[in-house]
Records
---
Amino acid sequence: MLPDEGLLNYLLDQSFGCRHITLIDPGKQSAEIATRRAIAAIESGASMIFVGGSTDTPDEVVHGTCKSIQEALELQIFAASQDPLSDENKWRIPVVLFPGGAHALSPAADGITFMMLMNSKSRKFLIGEQLRGAPYLEKFGVEPIPTGYVVFSPGGKVGEVGDAELIDEGQEDTVYAYALTAKMFGFKVLYLEAGSGASTQVDVSSIESARQVEELCLVVGGGIRSGEQAARAAKAGANWIVTGTLTEDASSMEELKQRVSEIVSAIQSSSS
Ligand code: 1GP
């Protein structure tokens, strides 16, 4: 559900400090489970939901998940509006597509990270998928968020499928050049990705190098599983921390809530 200030303003607003995005992969769970997880994550302090991840999820599966999450949010907003003690704005949380390509799209989403995989060696991920997706997004009015996407070692599946020239620790100049290039292209967001389920997160020096380009909103994800790891990225300058695996491998909703709360309180205290 769109917040009152609109998607881009909400995303770029730095007055809240570092915030958390829960990534839901519709290819890995039913729409019903995905929705329960998204609602539990928001209850625990997540400020945005990304839907996407897998490279081979059909449109209708992605759409079913987005629709189901949006319907659940509408219900929560309605319930909160009937209760004078509860704040309905808490449920105005954007559901944003995080696509693996031009196939994983849905008109039910509030927006999409419209990405260039900047360190891909393949035209397909630099501009090809975007050309296929753009007319669809225009037709259905899904708001594109201009995003540069850079994949770091170990990179995981996205590094492999996206044919990325992975960035290693110690390549601060390269990271700075990518960040400047992203700014010069007019991207609003730079997403530093270590790959879903990565054994190591994006290193602090790389985040600090990207942070030198102050105009960019920095999203950092991949391999973040604890509050301590999330805090490290937040301190280095991340505006948003994405976690996916953390919520998906939680053994119960209680565990999921506990894990998300830990991330949220760690990043808030290290960025305020
Ligand atoms: C993947 O950065 C995200 O695009 C999340 O990674 O699954 O490791 O949290 P994890």
Note: Residues 23, 193, 196-198, 221-224, 242-246 surround SN-glycerol-1-phosphate (CB under 6 Å).
---
Amino acid sequence: METIYFDNAATTPVDPEVIKAMMPYLTEHHGNPSSVHRFGRKTRAGIESSRRTIAELLNASPGEIFFASGGTEADNMAVKCAVMDMGIEHIIISEIEHHAVLYTAQDLEKRGLATVSYVKLTANGHIDLQDLESLLKAHPNSLVSLMHANNEIGNRIDLDVVGDLCHAHGALFHSDTVQTMAHYSFDLSALPVDMVSGSAHKFHGPKGVGFIYISSNVKMKPFIIGGSQERNMRAGTENVFSIVGLAKALEIAYADLEEHQEHILGLKNYMIKTLKLELPDAEFNGDISEDSLYTVLSVRLPENEMAEMLLYNLDIAGVACSGGSACSSGTNKGSHVLAAIYPDVTNPSVRFSFSKFNTKEEVDRCVGVLKNLFEAVPA
Ligand code: PLP
């Protein structure tokens, strides 16, 4: 029987239509996009039409979209440039940010370039807005970097509310939208955000390519220095075929957004319902209401001896999923997100994350596997 892939927040399978769009840029069009001749003009056209597609889908201007190697680079760019180029001396984040933001902010602090405050979290892992307001009052003109949806537990922030609060206190607002890009619609011209990050492999595009949106109001200096690519912001010959794949993946996602949302939310709710019935000892991390990211479900399981090697046991039983964040799957490091919200909980947690390619039958099989693992072995 085929292994069930419930690790879509780690990465998604590439859509065959995306591969089709990329192929000509691997086989036929080999020119360097910076070359003036026809070969170069062909690949330049591929890049610029991809940029226009992305900008149109997100209601931004093409000049506000900068390609990067993925979410990690986009996050680094946002946080580092805000401090190093714009003279911002204070960063406000939360302890449950992705390491691409968390470690970057901490590194700037270690180097003496900025100080960092952490917004308090509520009991189920939401940002405490009152605390954010107090921090903003104490540190006006900061950089605030808060993720749109948490990749481990799925809690979402309201970009309008947080962005307005930041701007009311002169702060620059970056949101890591890596898990929500292509899963929700964005009107970047209307949203009070200054920067957002996206990564193609989270929405059926290729790995190693993403982008950062930098509002035209924000004036940044080059992040990678060398050639004049990406309007001097990020030097280096562009990853042409991946950029074309990124735009195609975003286009496909937005063409059928509501259908996918409904299907995937249906799977998540079905899994919640089935787990409650079949494994009543299981609990859920974070907020599982319909406001949370519909692709992610973090389940806290009972402690027993199967828990020790849980991810391997699930893999052997035909379910691929993650223990915590995508990036720490495979390593034994505990989740910094769960540790920050539930410091006293020692139970094992598993993150199931779904895509448009998953089915209800897979949810049934997965719950059956969990029931077997946890009922066969006494606590
Ligand atoms: N931010 C979030 C919320 C993520 O989930 C990830 C990937 O797991 C990243 C950033 C990093 O993205 P990338 O893998 O494209 O570097």
Note: The pocket of pyridoxal-5'-phosphate is lined by residues 70-72, 75, 98, 100, 147, 151, 176, 178-179, 199, 210, 326-327 (CB under 6 Å).
